[in-house]
Write a structure and sequence with these properties.
Blueprint: E1 7-11, H1 15-26, E2 30-34, H2 38-46, E3 52-54, H3 59-62, E4 67-70, H4 74-84, E5 93-96, H5 102-111, E6 117-124, E7 144-148, H6 155-167, E8 172-175, H7 178-201, H8 214-219, H9 227-236, H10 238-261, H11 264-279
Parallel strand pairs: 1-2, 1-4, 2-3, 4-5, 5-6, 7-8
Antiparallel strand pairs: 6-7
Helix pairs in contact: 4-5, 7-10
GO molecular function: NAD+ binding; prephenate dehydrogenase (NAD+) activity; prephenate dehydrogenase (NADP+) activity
Pathway: Amino-acid biosynthesis
Protein name: Prephenate dehydrogenase
């Protein structure tokens, strides 16, 4: 349960970690942060995003935290926790913002101290720019928030994770198992990024930007991509993503067959089905 006295610690002050800090501080909560980039800590302090900050693990910050949010790359987070979990006091709740879950939650819950609890969560928000200087809690308001509990999580932890989503004003807060999360994220997030990247790399016309319309720009907005983070996410969830790529390729080939046969009724039916499904997003 979160009260007005709850203290948060953000580990990783990038775009999402900074947006958490900004949003929670505006709600009146005590927020500290740890980030290896001293300039990011200085910016957050100077702009009131956090109360205290450090460029390395600091017992003064870790032991006073009630809830710790890890906004790090998955493998970096796992290594950080392996090395520093002794710095947290018993009863601390740990959560994250990672875009994959099975290869994060299972690993962390497998080695974490018994007097600490880790519950996965995923804010489905972002921008094409990075860093705490671009943080903005407004990115959460039209976004979805997913909590990924396991049998090792207490009802209190699940409730608290959901409260974080509501405090930050996400549009919806839902629950999925880590496996169900990775399957659906492989489709709605990772596949869409794969498509956007492929669109930008399948045509090498040097003047392409002079010919495109809104549809191409909309489809490729997310092709401006953080290569280190997304390559890690793709590889950690590679089997799910491969299956989604195969499914998408199958639909493209089905459309290709309609074109070869000059099957206008089949094309129209596919377009009608697409329009009906997309309309559900606008309700």
């Amino acid at each position: 349960m979160i009260t007005e006295d709850t203290r948060f610690l953000i580990v990783g002050l990038g775009l999402i970690g900074g947006s958490y800090a900004r949003g929670l501080s505006k709600k009146g909560f005590w927020v500290d942060a740890i980030d290896t980039d001293a300039a990011s800590i200085s910016y957050a302090l100077e702009n009131g995003l956090i109360r205290r900050g450090a460029a390395r693990p600091d017992p003064a910050l870790t032991r006073s935290a009630d809830i710790v949010v890890f906004a790090l790359y998955p493998t970096v987070m796992i290594g950080w926790l392996r090395q520093n979990q002794a710095l947290f006091r018993p009863g601390t709740l740990l959560t994250d913002v990672s875009g994959v879950k099975c290869h994060v939650v299972d690993v962390i819950q497998g080695f974490l101290r018994e007097d600490l609890e880790f519950i996965g969560s995923h804010p489905m928000a972002g921008k094409e720019v990075y860093g705490v200087r671009n943080s903005d809690e407004a990115i959460f308001r039209a976004a979805n928030f997913i909590v990924t509990p396991t049998e090792k999580n207490t009802p209190e932890a699940v409730q608290t994770a959901r409260e974080i989503g509501r405090l930050l004003e996400f549009r919806t807060v839902s629950e999925l198992s880590p496996a169900a999360h990775d399957e659906i994220i492989g489709f709605v997030s990772q596949l869409t990024h794969a498509i956007a990247v492929s669109l930008m790399t399948c045509n090498e016309d040097e003047n392409l930007q002079n010919y495109t319309g809104d549809s191409f720009r909309d489809l490729t907005r997310i092709a401006r991509i953080n290569e280190k983070m997304w390559s890690e996410l793709f590889l950690l969830n590679r089997q799910e993503l491969i299956e989604q790529i195969d499914s998408f390729t199958g639909e493209l080939l089905r459309m290709r067959g309609m074109l070869e046969r000059e099957d206008r009724p089949a094309l129209e039916e596919m377009f009608i089905h697409s329009t009906r499904r997309r309309a559900l997003f606008d309700r």
